[in-house]
Amino acid sequence: METEERRTASAAPVTFEAAVDSPEPEAAEVQRQLWVDEPAVRPRLPDPVRTAAVRSVLITSLTLIQAMVAYLCTLAGSWLAFPMVLSSVGSTVVATWGVLDVWVTRQVWNQRHGVVSVPSSTARRLRRERRKARRAARRSARTRQREERARRGTGRLSQA
Q1: Angle between helix 47-76 and 81-112 (nearest 10)
Q2: Cα dihedral across residues 18, 20, 25, 27: positive or negative
Q3: For 110-119, what is each residue's pLDDT tens digit?
Q4: Is 49 within 8 Å of 109 (Cβ atoms)?
Q5: What are the φ/ψ torsions at residue 16 (nearest 5 degrees)?
Q6: What is the C-alpha to C-alpha distance for residues 52 and 48, in angstroms, rounded to an integer?
Q7: How far apart are CA 85 and CA 89, in angstroms?
Q8: pTM flag (> 0.70)
Q9: DSSP assignment, residue 11?
């Protein structure tokens, strides 16, 4: 089931019969939903960040498994111990890259898509107020010009 299907699918209401003896048959049945969705406390991660996080968890878990196999092969004195240690070192480098990839992807997402820092939002509010003041000043200047034109004459070309 895809994410969008899960989001749009709704739980069908389940009917439970109440054990109350009442004269009305409608009162005996209580409509309740079997599953009630509650809003999450934190919003869900954006898709690129979540993808990077899943990739990082998989790489890190494989690295830990490799390290454990290398340790056990070393204890057993197996010929596979040395190649496993070398591959564990390489996997550690890749796992570190995976964790850094999550961090960088999250920072890039925040920069491009809408995490508004306090100084920029304050500046935005000040710009909005300045724009509003300029519009009001232009509006009042236009009304003053109309009033002056109306006082000067009746709108005819000449007074003669």
Answers
A1: 170
A2: negative
A3: 888 865 555 6
A4: yes
A5: -115, 135
A6: 6
A7: 6
A8: no
A9: P
- Per-residue model confidence as pLDDT tens digits over 46-93: 899 999 999 999 999 999 999 999 999 999 999 999 999 999 999 999
Using H for helix, E for strand and C for coil, what is the string for 27-74?
A: HHEEEEECCCCCCCCCCCCCHHHHHHHHHHHHHHHHHHHHHHHHHHHH
Contacts 24+ apart (CB under 8 A), 143-152: none
Q: What is the CA radius of gyration of the chain?
A: 35
Q: Is the dihedral of CA 39, 43, 46, 52 positive or negative?
A: negative
Token output for 129 = 């107020």
Collapsing DSSP to helix, strand or coil, 148 comes out as helix
